[in-house]
Amino acid sequence: xxxxxxxxxxxxxxxxxxxxxxxxxxxxxxxxxxxxxxxxxxxxxxxxxxxxxxxxxxxxxxxxxxxxxxxxxxxxxxxxxxxxxxxxxxxxxxxxxxxxxxxxxxxxxxxxxxxxxxxxxxxxxxxxxxxxxxxxxxxxxxxxxxxxxxxxxxxxxxxxxxxxxxxxxxxxxxxxxxxxxxxxxxxxxxxxxxxxxxxxxxxxxxxxxxxxxxxxxxxxxxxxxxxxxxxxxxxxxxxxxxxxxxxxxxxxx
Amino acid sequence: xxxxxxxxxxxxxxxxxxxxxxxxxxxxxxxxxxxxxxxxxxxxxxxxxxxxxxxxxxxxxxxxxxxxxxxxxxxxxxxxxxxxxxxxxxxxxxxxxxxxxxxxxxxxxxxxxxxxxxxxxxxxxxxxxxxxxxxxxxxxxxxxxxxxxxxxxxxxxxxxxxxxxxxxxxxxxxxxxxxxxxxxxxxxxxxxxxxxxxxxxxxxxxxxxxxxxxxxxxxxxxxxxxxxxxxxxxxxxxxxxxxxxxxxxxxx
Amino acid sequence: xxxxxxxxxxxxxxxxxxxxxxxxxxxxxxxxxxxxxxxxxxxxxxxxxxxxxxxxxxxxxxxxxxxxxxxxxxxxxxxxxxxxxxxxxxxxxxxxxxxxxxxxxxxxxxxxxxxxxxxxxxxxxxxxxxxxxxxxxxxxxxxxxxxxxxxxxxxxxxxxxxxxxxxxxxxxxxxxxxxxxxxxxxxxxxxxxxxxxxxxxxxxxxxxxxxxxxxxxxxxxxxxxxxxxxxxxxxxxxxxxxxxxxxxxxxxxxxxxx
Lengths: 253, 252, 258
Ligand SMILES: Nc1ncnc2c1ncn2[C@@H]1O[C@H](COP(=O)(O)OP(=O)(O)O)[C@@H](O)[C@H]1O
Ligand SMILES: [Mg+2]
Hints:
The complex is a heterotrimer. Helix content of chain A is about 80%, strand content about 0%. In chain A, helix 4 runs parallel beside helix 7, helix 7 packs antiparallel against helix 9 and helix 9 runs parallel beside helix 10. The radius of gyration of chain A is 22 Å and the shape is globular. Chain B is an all-alpha fold. Chain B has one domain: Orthogonal Bundle (MetI-like fold), CATH 1.10.3720. The C terminus of chain B is likely disordered. Chain C is globular, with a radius of gyration of 19 Å. In chain C, a hairpin with a 4-residue loop joins strand 9 and strand 10. Chains A and B meet through helix 1, helix 5, helix 6, helix 7 and helix 9 of A and helix 1, helix 4, helix 5, helix 8 and helix 9 of B. The site of magnesium ion has 2 residues of chain C, from helix 1.
């Protein structure tokens, strides 16, 4: 890391620390009224306590399982879908408008339908996570494949590589950086889909806990759980971004 | 191409019809029944009223999100240092399931239009900001050199060089912002509200009125897709060059 | 118009807190109506020197004078053609060419007339309503040239304007540029790293050496026009050879000939 980068990171940390500090101070002074004035330190304590005494653990486990399942299924469908759309022009023409219209409709609206199709339990929540993730994955794989420079495929042909060789040594490496954008966004969107679905619709899970605490005026534990969601999603995103950077290092700008 | 697209729409309706026959009209009303319910909703006004409430919230939320996003995007795009410092922080917040923060909006603004507008704005502001920042930061330096070598005034430079150069990216940003603002408002209405399409949806769901649920879903889809098509048209007019790439990476 | 560069220097602060000297003590008299080529290896400071004359950068030492009058910043009678594509994708060919006139508040009718004439001059008749993305690289560079020429500049600065083009287009545009230069009577300062381009086009060739950028020699080129390698093969070859030596390319020559 160069000195400049290190300074940038320090600046970011400083901004977050100052912001949290101000929040802490204002909350301790009770600036936002009784329900909203929960200092970040209290949020953290409450979070630690409810993780330690196990009250939050089943919900965390449940949500983690839902996100993991949703993401795995979204990958299992989204990655091949991107490839199929690349290979079949007519199919791409038919499906593309739907892919573009994908994120403009509130997918949660389909929840009642999913309950009817999949029954209760975690399946309908997972389904929302899955469809939320698929679009970004398939679309970025498609874009990545379409942007393989023609000359690279021509090189493969001139070297008389077989199909598998071409796939393994040209197509996949050329596509990975862009595809990984989809793989990262797919995770974020699955996570957002699952937690949001829990929040408005479910009867268990981290998202549900926030809604439950809100409805029961438990603002301390509500803020504690919100803090958990913030930390977990930002950390996951950051980890994926750093992998993405590494993959794109060899790319020209 | 148009033939394939038409076919795909027909296929979608066929799938809907088959699914509804399989599950039964009581579980999933088919296209025809849904159309009748929508017609009823328009004739008796319950659907149109809810639609106007929702759009009445989306409009100011989108306007504020657009202005705020453009402003902060421009500011951070112009300052390389601040842009670099803030970008990961903003992208981090973008990755959070924002709906879990909605209770905070409710506590601040109370149940009602204000909390829904504020949350819709918060839900939609990020893509405009992110895209505007990138566009301003990466405007081709040679355009600015042309402007300076012609001794343009600052106003001329902004009006005739900077803004036209940014327009394609901004249309993409505004399109995404509309979708997210719209979804944010609907989420807010579903969670806690006394009016609007989201409220109608959750009320119908709780009373097992699947016909109304379907009708609302169709209206949501028509609004979402319709507005997007308008933006796409605008995009094609202002940016004849394709920018599919940007769409894919920043979709939603 | 005549340009006088007096002891021009340009240095940039470096990350480590030092300074990087891009140009040092450049003095040069650019004569009225001449075609001057600036030649040097990549990174020697050609673009920097051109942008200093254009007023897009300010020198850290020395002065620039037009017709003996010192001047800072862009000059209305000086126009630049950049190396990269600088056409505006949101304007048509005609819109691009008329942009400078529009900004200077020219009367619309007069503007339309001059744009029309310029479209013919740069050979884009029939393409006036196209957008840049519908044109080839060579045509886009013609648009950029038209956009500057239409302002009737006294000094035309060109930074490797044909750099991104293929050999044939380069040659054709070079010939057209010479014609335009003769007809307009403008002073042309033409940056290139191509020996042949310099020898074929310029009256005088200023050779710039790198680190720090400085003028090491100015060669008078009195080959008769139109210039072809075959016409005065010996003198043409000698001039190329001299430039090669001045640019320190001697070592490479053996390899390329071998
Ligand atoms: N803004 C700048 N900051 C620091 N160094 C610069 C800047 N602009 C140019 N340079 C340096 O000055 C030198 C000359 O650059 P330039 O004039 O672009 O060269 P040329 O056009 O001959 O290839 C190069 O080494 C370049 O790295
Ligand atoms: Mg240069």
